[in-house]
Every structure is written in C-alpha cells, then in structure tokens.
DNA sequence: GATTCGTGGGC
DNA sequence: TGCCCAAGAAT
C-alpha cells in the first residue's frame, strides 16, 4: 500500500493561481481605506494622485503622509498646478515629512510632466522611471495602480511577504534580487494594481515585521515560513552599523518686530533646499564657532534629534539683532522648518 | 554594493 | 530607553 503523507505541504511556487485567488479575495474583503485610493471597483485613480501618494509614502507611514496628501491635493489639484508652484511654497508644505530630496524631485518631476509630456503622466513603467524621484518601486506602482500594467511592485512589505512565503534564507539586502524574482513569479495581467496593493496591505496589517497575525492570513496554506513555525524570523537581515553622534550650535535670532532670522540651505545634502536656523558645523566633538552676527547671545539649553545615520545634540543660543537673513514671523517659521530646527526654535523661544 | 537622506510611532 | 521600521531614490 503506497504511503501518502496525510498533509502534503503546499507551496506558492506550485500553486500560483490559488495563491493569487486567495490574496485577491482577502483584499476585496479587508483592503484598507486610504485617502488616495479609489473605492472598490471604481475607475482607476488619477495618476497624479497615485504618483503624489507614492512619493510621500517612500519610507513614510500612511498615518504621517495622509495630512500632507490632503494639503497638497487641496492646494495643487493637478500636476500642472504643482508645476506652476513656487519652490519655497512646496518646500514649506513638505516641512516635517522628511527626506527633503523628495520634495525637490517632486517639483522637478511635475515640471517635466508639464513641459515634456503635456501635463499627462507617461503610462508605461519605462516612461515613469525616467522621471525625477521615480525609481523602480514607484514606477512599477504607478504603472500598476494608475494604468493597470502588470508591473512587479516590490517594496518593503512585498519583500517581507515574499521572504516568508518562500522562506528565503538569504539576508537582506543581499536577498533583494531573489525576492524580486520570486515576487515577479506571482504577477499576472489580472488586476495588477489590486495585486500590488493586496500584497502591501497584507504586509502592513497581517504579515507584519514583529508579530505576524498568521491566524488572519489567507496564505498560510502555502507559506513556508508559517510551516516552519517561526514566521517572524523572516526576512533575515544583516546587522546595521551603529549610529554616530554629532554636536553643534544653532542660533535663534529675532529682529525688533519679533521675526526669526533664517537661512536657505543648499540644495544638496542634509535638509537640502529647506529653510534652517543659522548653525555651526556639526561634528563628533564641539567646534567653537563665531555666531552669525554680533549680539547679546544667551544660552537657552539644547535639543536632541535623531537622523537616519547620526544623532545630533544642538546647543541653542538666542539673541536680538538684524542682518542678511530670511525674516519670517514665528508661526510661519515654525511651520516652514524641518523638525530639527522647529525643535531648536521652540527651545530658543522658550529660553 | 554601500552611503546618504527625516521623522514619528511602537514596543 | 534605545532600537526597529515605514509604499525608496540618488549617487
């Protein structure tokens, strides 16, 4: 009598059609409601809104991006409106969202679409990829979601879901090509935008980094990580380098009308293109630096701020005076500054 | 392939 | 508290 195992483990590789049906069915029942999304079964969403949301969502949570998306689409309803905006207005509107190169590229992209494409987004992955600030992920996402192209949309969620589904033992980031190939093996021309968003919704709400909610997952029957008993082990990652610490000085200068003296930072580098307080260089050890203008400077304490690749302590000094600065009222300055300078300004005003 | 580039929330 | 991480892109 032939011995047949009672339960033969299924695999996603051998059952692609069933995996797709299970996840798309789950998506139809459990998809997230997000402000940039069209409703279930609705016509494909406006490419401008898809693109804008994708740029804002790069390395950014949906909760953080949502109010910015609402503000941008209210103020600049079309890509042509955005293309015609002033640089300073767009940078100020982006303040607090982080990764400010995105805002500079956002404007460059809007202007390229307006100037080179008649205000209409390219509808192919290759055409989108040629735009400023649009990389492999964003090109694929816009092509799939806005234009129904069967693109292989691979973000951090898709990498995690795929690593678990196939129990990939190679650690990130070395595993990226393998994960992309495996994710691509599940893409078809059926509902490409929904497929991409289904994978991302699953990754965000069920197949989470820390404690995956496998009891709610529609794919456990095919999931090698689930079958291993330790799904949270995936994806494996190589250890990150320690975060160094830097220190520096920031000056809060007020004129006789109570306005704040600001500088425009150079386009390249940290906080590029944004307004900022005048500061010293930031180094591992304190560097004695002359203040930007003579004044009766007083110590007002310090603020801590953590960037992606270093932590910063900023000593804040406040004083009264004038000079060659960009002078903004307090409220406008607070609203236009990146967070590290908003914190320093608040410290200087309180002291 | 490795670095640079923000911020805020969760645990 | 410190670490992880979030719909990555550019260099």
UniProtKB/TrEMBL annotation:
InterPro entries, alphabetized: A/G_AdeGlyc_MutY, DNA_glycosylase, Endonuclease-III-like_CS2, Endonuclease3_FeS-loop_motif, Endouclease-III_FeS-bd_BS, HhH-GPD_domain, HhH_base_excis_C, HhH_motif
The protein's enzyme class: hydrolase
Catalytically driven reaction(s): Hydrolyzes free adenine bases from 7,8-dihydro-8-oxoguanine:adenine mismatched double-stranded DNA, leaving an apurinic site
Cofactor(s) essential for the protein: [4Fe-4S] cluster
Record-given protein name: Adenine DNA glycosylase
One Pfam family it belongs to: HhH-GPD
Keywords for the protein's UniProt record, in alphabetical order: 4Fe-4S, DNA damage, DNA repair, Glycosidase, Hydrolase, Iron, Iron-sulfur, Metal-binding
EC number: 3.2.2.31
CDD domains per record: ENDO3c
GO biological process: base-excision repair; mismatch repair
GO MF, one annotated term: 8-oxo-7,8-dihydroguanine DNA N-glycosylase activity
Organism of this sequence: Brevundimonas alba
Sequence similarity: Belongs to the Nth/MutY family.
